[in-house]
Amino acid sequence: DFLGALDEVKPLFGAAEEELGERIEGGIINFSTYIDDILEEGRLYINQVRKPDNSTPILSVALHGPPGSGKTALAAKMAIDSGFPFIKLVSPENMVGFSEMQKVQQLDKTFRDAYKSPLSVIVIDNIEMLVDWVPIGPRFSNTVLVALKVLLKKKPEKKGRRLLILATTTERTVLQQLDLFSKFDAEIAVPNVNTQAELANVLQHSGAFSDRDLQRAIGEIQEITGDTRIGVGVERVLKGIQTAKQDSDLPGRFARVMSNQISANRSLQA
Amino acid sequence: DFLGALDEVKPLFGAAEEELGERIEGGIINFSTYIDDILEEGRLYINQVRKPDNSTPILSVALHGPPGSGKTALAAKMAIDSGFPFIKLVSPENMVGFSEMQKVQQLDKTFRDAYKSPLSVIVIDNIEMLVDWVPIGPRFSNTVLVALKVLLKKKPEKKGRRLLILATTTERTVLQQLDLFSKFDAEIAVPNVNTQAELANVLQHSGAFSDRDLQRAIGEIQEITGDTRIGVGVERVLKGIQTAKQDSDLPGRFARVMSNQISANRSLQA
Amino acid sequence: DFLGALDEVKPLFGAAEEELGERIEGGIINFSTYIDDILEEGRLYINQVRKPDNSTPILSVALHGPPGSGKTALAAKMAIDSGFPFIKLVSPENMVGFSEMQKVQQLDKTFRDAYKSPLSVIVIDNIEMLVDWVPIGPRFSNTVLVALKVLLKKKPEKKGRRLLILATTTERTVLQQLDLFSKFDAEIAVPNVNTQAELANVLQHSGAFSDRDLQRAIGEIQEITGDTRIGVGVERVLKGIQTAKQDSDLPGRFARVMSNQISANRSLQA
Amino acid sequence: DFLGALDEVKPLFGAAEEELGERIEGGIINFSTYIDDILEEGRLYINQVRKPDNSTPILSVALHGPPGSGKTALAAKMAIDSGFPFIKLVSPENMVGFSEMQKVQQLDKTFRDAYKSPLSVIVIDNIEMLVDWVPIGPRFSNTVLVALKVLLKKKPEKKGRRLLILATTTERTVLQQLDLFSKFDAEIAVPNVNTQAELANVLQHSGAFSDRDLQRAIGEIQEITGDTRIGVGVERVLKGIQTAKQDSDLPGRFARVMSNQISANRSLQA
Amino acid sequence: DFLGALDEVKPLFGAAEEELGERIEGGIINFSTYIDDILEEGRLYINQVRKPDNSTPILSVALHGPPGSGKTALAAKMAIDSGFPFIKLVSPENMVGFSEMQKVQQLDKTFRDAYKSPLSVIVIDNIEMLVDWVPIGPRFSNTVLVALKVLLKKKPEKKGRRLLILATTTERTVLQQLDLFSKFDAEIAVPNVNTQAELANVLQHSGAFSDRDLQRAIGEIQEITGDTRIGVGVERVLKGIQTAKQDSDLPGRFARVMSNQISANRSLQA
Amino acid sequence: DFLGALDEVKPLFGAAEEELGERIEGGIINFSTYIDDILEEGRLYINQVRKPDNSTPILSVALHGPPGSGKTALAAKMAIDSGFPFIKLVSPENMVGFSEMQKVQQLDKTFRDAYKSPLSVIVIDNIEMLVDWVPIGPRFSNTVLVALKVLLKKKPEKKGRRLLILATTTERTVLQQLDLFSKFDAEIAVPNVNTQAELANVLQHSGAFSDRDLQRAIGEIQEITGDTRIGVGVERVLKGIQTAKQDSDLPGRFARVMSNQISANRSLQA
Ligand SMILES: Nc1ncnc2c1ncn2[C@@H]1O[C@H](COP(=O)(O)OP(=O)(O)OP(=O)(O)O)[C@@H](O)[C@H]1O
Ligand SMILES: Nc1ncnc2c1ncn2[C@@H]1O[C@H](COP(=O)(O)OP(=O)(O)OP(=O)(O)O)[C@@H](O)[C@H]1O
Ligand SMILES: Nc1ncnc2c1ncn2[C@@H]1O[C@H](COP(=O)(O)OP(=O)(O)OP(=O)(O)O)[C@@H](O)[C@H]1O
Ligand SMILES: Nc1ncnc2c1ncn2[C@@H]1O[C@H](COP(=O)(O)OP(=O)(O)OP(=O)(O)O)[C@@H](O)[C@H]1O
Ligand SMILES: Nc1ncnc2c1ncn2[C@@H]1O[C@H](COP(=O)(O)OP(=O)(O)OP(=O)(O)O)[C@@H](O)[C@H]1O
Ligand SMILES: Nc1ncnc2c1ncn2[C@@H]1O[C@H](COP(=O)(O)OP(=O)(O)OP(=O)(O)O)[C@@H](O)[C@H]1O
Ligand SMILES: [Mg+2]
Ligand SMILES: [Mg+2]
Ligand SMILES: [Mg+2]
Ligand SMILES: [Mg+2]
Ligand SMILES: [Mg+2]
Ligand SMILES: [Mg+2]
After folding, report:
1. Fewest CB within 10 angstroms: C11, C268, D65, D261, which?
2. Domains in chain F and their CATH numbers?
């Protein structure tokens, strides 16, 4: 039978019970007011779906932004804070080695399961990787893509079932080119750590920097890059702090690591 | 046998008995005189097929327009209002996970079934998705495409059988490039909500806006976008109203949501 | 065995006994002197093949022209008027769902059957669709293409067998690019309804227009399009007449329908 | 076993015993001194291979020229006139429906058979079609191409075996792009009927034209095309004579048919 | 079962027990201060992973540089010097003839094995060859690529397990285009032997050159290339020394061999 | 089992025991000092590998040059003159009809066999054909390419085993684009017969030309081509001598044949 093989499909890399909770273990730092705005907008969509008049049985939101900017963490936070009875993460991590058809089946199963609950959230992580997208060629899985297009628009067959879909991606333009982006009802942009003030917030929160080290680190970054703009994802900032902690010269090493990152990002944009 | 597998082909995502009626549950708002003109033109084609002299045994009409502009709803309305004994929706939603050959078989079966009735309407929804079309590459299913080309031109073998085909698409240009568009006998353009007056009609009909809120919302949209033109599908307008209803500042939130949409649409066109 | 599967190959869409006669049921209207010239040229080729001295055992003619201009009807007329004992239509309609190899086998069988008769005509309809040609890509079936190239040049093995091949296509340039066109011995261009006088001939023949309505319709077309040229296939003219008949304002509706068509054709050419 | 399936491979379109003799049934007309030169050059290569000192165990010659210029007829003539004990035609006609591997096996078998004889000629007809070459894409069979490259260079394993390969093609440039042309030891260009004098030779030889008709036909061609150059393959000239014979106005019809051909050829070159 | 076939997958070219130690058998020459800096940076990352607070459970570093510059040797040195209990080399050498899925399974197995140890290093050698990347086309294995992307980001499921990944590549730009480079936490550039002083260090260390021969060799290189820059990988320098040793004129031959190499590298960059 | 099928893989075109000796049957003519230099350089590499200190366990040399310039003959000469106990030719001739995997297995087997001997030479002939490279597309076998890349760099697992690889190719640029060329340790350019003096050497050596005929032939070539440069591979020169010997006018025919060749080569380069 067409769905028969499904139960035997096991993720190749470890177990499937990835918990959304793990994604926000370190807590969310409000290093900028944008973080609050994003979470606020998330609450709005959750309430729209929650509304008992059933006017919005399905709603899909795309969180897009640069690598390591916190997209997955923020989507996980929204999902968990919703308090909806069904919450599920769909991630390429759990589908490595799947055929295209197995991915479609996994997606189908997740959506069916969601529609068994009155209120559900599905987080689709790295949606461009789910369709195996690679910039060279470009290549991607048409089968998975078409399935996603349909699932994002397909209303629940049973009345009273309501679903919020949160998808993350670093590749907004790609989704547009794949004609997938237009299937979303809303989009939320997740920004990098962009200003010196925002960077200072993260450093302070880490507890690793004295005030003087913090000033020196930021000052040296400006000197090396010749610019006050940062433009680095929060993940790299946090990892950079850890690397710097191994060095006797904490602020100096941090400044060098960050500056390299800033330059690399810039040359990618040029 | 060549057709043997057909009966076992079941749609992967839920049941196949999608009803056309569901597509017009919310009713059609006549927010512009174009809506009336479109339905009037639909009646003309229905009558041409209905004519007992058999001069037009098969007629195909392509409804094209931007996403969420109401193409499917209008095609569903025409089909239901025809009163023809056989009415059927062919939709990619019910064919996810089908192979190309299974799609062709499903199409073939639908057309055969239609020709068992003296008067029939087939609505082919999102015809560009039915051929798995993706703008990158571009890619599409040649097998399904060729089958559609033939089916749109193939006269019923039995005398006295007559068929109207209504197809919807967001991708008129693509159908032209695929040499599929020229197989249609007629085309109907379905427009966005384009003017402030049209938008006001939709808002008024929703019952969610007081007259003052309505004025404020439209005024703020003009302020933010710097333009009196709207250019958004009716679906987004209706969903935007629902989102705004979650906010304490209804007209303000609506204006922001709409303005984002208007800008996004514009940047796509640029 | 290599040919074993052939007998089991059944066309997916209905029976294979498509009759050439059906294609000229409505009769041929001599709306222009070109129609006579074409039929005359057809007679010439038929006689060249008929000639008992066997100097031309195989002759192939490509009828090319815009969609709905009458290519198939004219080829059918030539074939039937030849009085040759073996007449056969090869059409993509009867090969939907065939694999490339099944198509080649079907072609092979038709040519073998033809060579069992002393004098034969094979009409190959929409030859560009037979090779699954699609402008995007572009794509096509190389296997079928190569088989056609060989069949168009391959002389009968048995002496005294003679064959005329009439092929139709909307895609002369494509056939040239596929290096298929050069395999034909001759070509015949089938034109659109191009002048107001030709259009008047068709309208008069339909019996649906009074003289005044005819003048008004043509006048309005000129007004709307700003041009005296028509450039529409006879098929669309005939279908347009049927649509207009559903409207209370026959000439007005006809003028609008035709003008749309004229503009669409023009924009395609630009 | 790897070669096991070979014996069961039967050509799809009729028997394989195509005779080279059939290709020169109508005789070779020496319409130009080039024809003599070509046959003379052929004799030279035949003698080089025939030479008992075994200095040239394998020699390959490519005959290239426009469609219908007589390449196959001239290669057949050379092969037959050589008097070599083994003469074989390899033609795409006898390989329609073959897989790539079956073609390679057929080629292999032919070359093995040839090496069983002390002196052999293999004529490979339409070598670009043998590799399934199509200008769009472009596409071709890499497997067959590589096999041909090897076979053209592979010396007989057994001493005293000698082989001449004559290949025909309309696509010299293509063979160069496929890096197949450089594998040939020599090339011979086969020309069209190019001048009025050459055309007159062919017409005279046909016996269908009186001197006056001949003058009139050539004069009218010059008038219609505005040019004294002809540039048409001898095959088309001969077929054109047959078509014209069906018309009451022999020279007039011939002039029109030829002029069309001349224009078509010219527009292809432009 | 999905992983069942894995144990039977044996590398086609020899045994899999390639030892990292073999890669640094000849010892590392500190021909430039860069070599020290690189090894120092390696120690930093090793300590970051070693840190008991588990703040960096997974860290990935890309070593990139020209062919034969010492990437694999330096990665091997870092891995061995770490003293981590689990050290493993993943190399295309051991996967020739593997299917894409077998490669993914091999990768998966290595990472699982690594996560059985508290502290692990995996060296992925020539990562661009692991994805079968070829510049023409370009082509690569999407399946392996997606698996690598996931593995570089996937945190260990079990707490307290920590992993350092060292990958080598000559194709930094390619990895960027494949969107694989952004998955790495850090990058280290490995340089060529670039200056005359660096070259002299290598020559001296080899013990093959007297001081005068060394001067002469370097002088002649400058004369031939017209430049003081070298720009050759240390591997080619070492092999060049061996070649030169076969010649009676050691410095002369060495100068010629190096100069050829220098010119070849330059023309590649131009 | 993975290697099981190997023994059954038999070359399609004749036996595999192609002897390297056959490639130099006619002897090497030292028509230029380059020939000596090439053989001398070959001896150097052979000695480097032969050296008992095991400093160069594997060495690969690419011989590249125009078609028929003598690459295979020179590689065969080097291999045979080395006196190494294991000498093997790997040639596309013996792999026609092999699948990609079968080619990889054959390569693997040859290298394993080589490593059973202390000193080995493998000649890989026409390496660009081994990877099925075709300029159109371009196309090639990625599987074979990756296997070659690995084999060229993979050191013997057993100590004391040493291997020299000599590869020939007409396509140096292609190998660079495939990133295969950089895997070679050294390259040797094999030139055409380029000057009149070099051509005279070959003619004299053939014994077919009197001094006067030789002068006349070279003089006429210069007259026809308007140039003193020759630029033709030695193979074509030798074959041209044989062709000319069939003609009563030996020098005249030779001059014409050579001039055609010279022009053809030039137009290829333009
Ligand atoms: N605002 C934040 N405050 C503190 N930590 C954060 C914040 N956002 C993200 N992080 C942390 O940074 C790391 C990376 O975040 P996350 O994975 O959500 O980013 P991402 O944008 O999804 O990255 P990717 O592009 O790789 O998918 C995680 O460890 C996460 O917990
Ligand atoms: N004129 C209208 N008045 C009121 N509601 C409408 C109107 N047209 C469409 N709708 C509603 O808007 C929503 C979207 O309409 P519909 O699905 O027909 O649009 P569409 O153009 O087919 O969209 P898509 O491009 O996604 O296929 C539906 O809920 C439908 O009922
Ligand atoms: N000269 C004519 N007079 C009257 N009717 C005609 C004439 N030519 C064609 N028709 C009618 O027009 C319709 C379309 O003609 P036909 O199918 O031959 O056109 P076509 O050029 O083959 O179209 P297509 O491009 O779709 O293959 C048919 O119903 C046919 O009977
Ligand atoms: N010189 C000639 N004199 C008379 N008839 C000729 C001559 N050359 C060719 N023909 C005849 O013309 C016809 C076509 O010739 P042939 O098939 O050899 O041409 P071709 O160049 O091989 O064509 P194609 O490009 O289609 O392969 C044949 O009937 C052949 O007998
Ligand atoms: N700094 C060094 N000092 C001495 N020998 C070195 C040094 N670096 C590398 N080598 C030696 O040079 C040879 C090539 O080095 P290695 O394989 O590490 O280079 P690579 O950059 O990985 O090359 P590839 O680009 O081919 O992968 C090895 O034999 C290695 O031992
Ligand atoms: N220097 C030489 N002197 C005499 N004969 C030679 C010389 N070089 C090559 N030949 C002869 O020329 C012929 C072609 O040489 P060979 O096959 O080695 O050339 P190649 O460069 O390998 O050609 P290809 O590009 O086709 O592989 C052979 O018969 C060979 O014996
Ligand atoms: Mg994420
Ligand atoms: Mg719709
Ligand atoms: Mg037709
Ligand atoms: Mg021919
Ligand atoms: Mg390396
Ligand atoms: Mg060679």
Report:
1. C268
2. 4-189 (3.40.50.300), 196-263 (no CATH)
